[in-house]
Specification:
The chain is an alpha+beta fold. The protein has one domain. The chain contains one helix and ten strands; from the N terminus they run αββββββββββ. It has a six-stranded antiparallel beta sheet, covered by helices on one side. The protein is elongated. The chain starts with about 25 loop residues before the first helix and ends with a strand.
Length: about 210
């Protein structure tokens, strides 16, 4: 009697059935792609940090400029008389009639009493714009690192510098900085990231 077995012989490859393996080339390609992705992410993050480092000084400087201009606008618009010339902590000399109304200082009178005044002046010794009132022996620093001496000018509505004090005179204010203000004091110049930084504003004064 012949007895046949119902069991099939085990396949020599059965234990590996369903398993998948990567070749060395595939592993190298996957590793290269992963490194490229990681490199791109790091580059993007570093670029973002750099942009923040570049932008933050400008934001800080803009805030400092607003703090500089705001009291100046208030003083000029509320003054009864405005005179442009040269000055320091102790003295002021206004521009003579017939000469161009531009100089390093501006003197503001809230009334007809010329003994009561507020003076803004550019200090040549430390390159700072300062503010002083009559009777005071200390000046308040308004802006630092200012390189131009002709800070103030008297202009007409078209921006032409006047030679007389007319009604509705426009006071031009120009501040050329050698470094960005605020919290960083980043230097400004041809060899630095920012080649120049200037603030220019015009304030209308109406005779009262």
């Amino acid at each position: 009697m012949n007895i046949r077995s119902r069991h099939k012989p085990a396949s020599s490859t059965g234990s590996y059935r369903g398993q998948i393996a990567f070749t060395l080339v595939e592993v190298m390609i996957a590793s290269t792609i992963s490194l490229m992705v990681v490199g791109a992410v790091l580059t993007t993050n570093l670029f973002g940090v750099r942009v923040i480092q570049i932008t933050q000084p400008k934001v800080s400087a803009s805030a400092a400029v607003r703090q500089t201009i705001s009291p100046l606008v208030t003083d000029i618009t509320s003054a009864k008389m405005v005179r442009i010339g040269s000055g320091d902590l102790y003295s002021f000399t206004r521009v003579a009639d017939g000469a161009l109304k531009q100089g390093s200082a501006v003197q503001l009178y809230p009334s007809n009493d010329t003994n009561v005044f507020t003076r803004y002046f550019w200090d040549v010794t430390d390159k700072k714009l300062k503010r002083v009132t009559n009777g005071s022996t200390n000046a308040l620093v308004v802006a630092s690192a200012i390189t131009n001496n002709l800070v103030f000018s008297g202009e007409d509505s078209l921006g032409n510098i006047l030679t007389n004090n007319q009604n509705n005179i426009v006071i031009g204010v120009t501040l050329q900085y050698s470094q960005l203000g605020g919290t960083t004091n980043m230097p400004v110049g041809p060899t630095n990231y920012y080649k120049s930084y200037q603030v220019r504003t015009r304030i209308v004064h109406r005779s009262q």
